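Sanity check

After download, print the first record. It should look like this:
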Amino acid sequence: KIPITDKTDPKESINGLINEFMPVKAEIADTVEKEILWDEYMERYHELKYGSPFGNQLKYLISIGGKEPQYVGCMMFSASSWSLSKRDKWIGWTKEDRFSRLYLIVNNTRFLIFPWIKIKNLASYSLSQAARKIQKDWWLKHRYTPVLLETFVDSEKYSGVSYRAANWIYLGNTRG
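Expected structure tokens:
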């Protein structure tokens, strides 16, 4: 159980356009303190909670502002899904290919913009920023470079517009 503290209490609402809050950064939660904070935000505000991530993973804290940056969200990338027929067909690999190369795909398993943050284009900008830097960041932590990102969007609750705006490609619905 992840304890909830006042460190993640809701803050004053922030509204506006992304260019009003630059720089926007997706930075690795690379200290124990940042990782505990990431875990707490996710447990408190994400509908799936912290969960139990498996395999290699990388947690990012999203911040805005220059001199005194403020956290506005979190995301995590971790091990990919074992078998997705649409993905596997899109890539064009065999069962053997998947077995030997699956580790090169990482899944955006958690993405959260805090409920009091209403900054237009923040989500897509953050996803794009993470996509641009994850190869280097993943290499530094895990010593190999992913070549593909994937995610799942609950289409009954979300449209996936932030992913589309960040140039992610929709491959179709899963059977699960």
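If your output differs, re-run the checksum step. Summary of this record's structure: Residues 91 and 120 are 33 Å apart (CA to CA).
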